[in-house]
Design goal:
Largest sheet of chain B: 5 strands, parallel
Number of helices of chain A: 7
Largest interface: A-B, 50 and 64 residues
Radius of gyration of chain A: 16 Å
Radius of gyration of chain B: 20 Å
Helix content of chain A: 25-40%
Number of helices of chain B: 14
Oligomer: heterodimer
Structural class of chain A: alpha/beta
Number of strands of chain B: 17
Strand order of the largest sheet of chain A: 1-2-3-4
Distance between the termini of chain A: 32 Å
Distance between the termini of chain B: 52 Å
């Protein structure tokens, strides 16, 4: 899969501008993904391409439209040095896999990237880059196939069930 | 070992000792949805098999982002939410009351020790009332609508201690911009900011709301002010059943970080495009021409903001070169401003006064900028494209700086007009 490289502090307004938020169909949102900030993206992005960014990807709004726009564009994985909290969780909930990798600086625009989920690493141009494991309680949601599927399996929740991170 | 305020809130809720880093499924006291993220939350609730919401009385619904509906699709989304509220028995403030965060607080939907979630990132505003309040996405909100609970990773806290008294024309907005500049846009990610010190202890509620509101601009999960006499007085009529009780961090609580600020010599602050943490003293950007000045939003759309703006305006007019948009954050704030004669004053001076709503803050429905234009705004974000064209620039400041700049047509130190 091909790398689309972004910098630090990519905010949710950049991913999907506010004026399109009446829409929540991923395909329609994808028509405006990165509009005005990275216009080549929505024209040339291919199914399975991967977004690679620096620190604080997805900062700003709680709009789930942001991960949905990326999913609509065919992106299933975003790799970043760090993610904003709400975006990270929205991504897991909607099925966009956010991978935290401290070495994104070495990953370059246009290069191929392969993701070894079981092995916990990325590979590009012959080099391997480890990524952090998804936190255990988030992994449960990932394993269930997203929060909707996870929620469907339960009649009621057990309050204050607790796990140590 | 001592506990932080946030750890205490979760420990009380869970009936056992909870520490930062624990992941808990905790019941929520209140959930807020609005016109932008609400429709998707309702859709997710249904996809999860939801039929009846967990407790209609603990859900707050209102429309504020696209008000009145600016497109057929916005109207459809609002109609969809109205019908859902009616069927479920949820009280819907609809488009009558104003911006979600102001309305939740002024209607008493958040109180000390409560856990409140909202499908809007600035939900952290309710930390001003001593609540643990955080923004969540629509799918998480769908889960909350169904179960009345959500998984939380209990955050570490950064203690932000602020001392000193503000100089004239300097206030809470300048303080929180300066804190954001110091901590950075991701400096508090996954943590809570606990605002303490003599400056906060004497700060009225509007300033506390401004500071808690912008905790998210540092990545924080919550921005909380320990409840005190000012908090309880604010809640006395709004939540008469909630009796004051002590709630603060233990002396020996463990913080991830301690930060100290002194506002004695603080001067008006401005966040420069395109990052909220790109903060400078006003004199560094003074003289920059502005095309639009927006005084409003959940950050600074309260009576106190308009009163200070009006005081600076005096008998003058706003510059003909500037479009001045004044939008109260809520109907209550609008009425206070109206009754004080300030709306008349602003309109006479050349401003456009709009009904309570988010307005240009999100760049959704009106007040958008053309390429090359500059906006000076009292709102909370200056991301590229936030208020229209990605080739426009948004600067952030206090209502005082905004008013002074609206008079001169360029960014101006409010102490100099």
């Amino acid at each position: 899969m091909r790398i689309w490289k972004f910098g630090n502090d990519i905010d949710t307004d950049a991913i999907i501008p506010g004026r399109y938020l009446t829409e929540y169909d991923p395909k329609k949102l994808a028509e405006h993904v990165f509009e005005g900030t990275r216009d080549d993206f929505r024209i040339a992005v291919k199914e399975g391409d991967v977004v690679v960014a620096g620190r604080n990807f997805g900062c700003g709004s709680s709009r789930e439209h942001a991960p949905l726009a990326l999913l609509g564009a065919g992106v299933k994985i975003v790799v970043a040095e760090s993610f904003a909290r709400i975006f990270y969780r929205n991504s897991v909930n909607t099925g966009l896999l956010p991978l935290i990798c401290p070495d994104t600086g070495a990953l370059l625009e246009g290069h191929d990237l392969t993701v070894d989920l079981a092995g916990g690493s990325l590979e590009s141009e012959g080099a391997r880059y480890p990524f952090e494991a998804v936190p255990p309680f988030m992994q449960e949601i990932v394993d269930a196939g997203g929060l909707v599927e996870y929620a469907k399996q339960m009649k009621e929740v057990e309050l204050c069930t607790k796990s140590q991170q | 070992m001592g506990a932080t305020l946030v750890e205490k809130i979760f420990s009380t809720r869970c009936g056992k000792e909870i520490e930062a880093g624990d992941v808990v499924m905790a019941a929520v006291d209140r959930a807020m949805i609005h016109d932008i993220t609400g429709p998707l939350a309702i859709q997710k609730f249904r996809e999860m098999g939801g039929e009846r919401v967990f407790d209609p009385a603990r859900i707050v619904m209102l429309f504020d982002h696209q008000v009145p509906a600016d497109s057929i699709q916005a109207a459809e989304n609002q109609k969809f939410m109205r019908e859902f509220a009616l069927r479920q028995g949820i009280h819907n403030y609809d488009l009558r009351e104003g911006v979600c965060h102001q309305v939740v607080l002024e209607k008493g939907h958040a109180a000390p020790g409560e856990i409140v979630v909202g499908s809007d990132s600035h939900t952290c505003t309710y930390g001003a009332a001593g609540a643990f309040a955080t923004g969540i996405g629509s799918t998480d909100m769908g889960f909350v609508l169904k179960f009345g609970a959500l998984y939380f990773r209990v955050p570490d806290s950064i203690r932000v201690e602020v001392n000193g008294a503000f100089a004239p024309r300097v206030g809470a907005k300048d303080l929180i911009l300066s804190i954001a500049g110091d901590i950075g846009a991701d400096g508090a990610t996954y943590q809570a900011l606990e605002f303490t010190g003599e400056t906060f202890e004497s700060m009225p509620m509007p300033g506390r709301m401004t500071c808690s509101n912008m905790a998210i601009e540092m990545g924080a999960k919550a921005g909380i002010v320990p409840p005190d006499a000012i908090t309880w007085e604010y809640l006395r009529e709004r939540r008469p059943e909630v009796r004051p009780f002590p709630l603060k961090s233990d002396e020996d609580a463990t913080y991830s970080e301690m930060r100290e600020f002194d506002v004695t010599d603080l001067v008006p602050q401005v966040a420069v495009p395109h990052n909220v943490d790109n903060v400078v003293d006003v004199d560094e950007v003074a003289g920059t021409h502005v095309d639009q000045v927006f005084i409003g939003s959940c950050t600074n759309g309260r009576y106190e903001d308009f009163a200070e703006a009006a005081e600076i305006l005096g008998d003058r007019k706003f510059s003909d070169d500037v479009r001045v948009l004044i939008i109260p954050a809520s109907r209550d704030e609008y009425m206070k401003t109206l009754r004080a004669g300030l709306i008349e004053k602003f309109v006479e001076a050349g401003a456009l006064v709009e009904a309570p709503c988010c307005g240009p803050c999100m760049g959704g429905s009106f007040g958008l900028l053309a390429p090359g234009e500059v906006s000076l705004s009292t709102s909370n974000r200056n991301f590229r494209g936030r208020q229209g064209s990605t080739e426009a620039e948004v600067y952030l400041c206090s209502a005082a700086t905004a008013a002074a700049s609206a008079i001169t047509g360029e960014i101006t130190d409010p102490r100099e007009v």
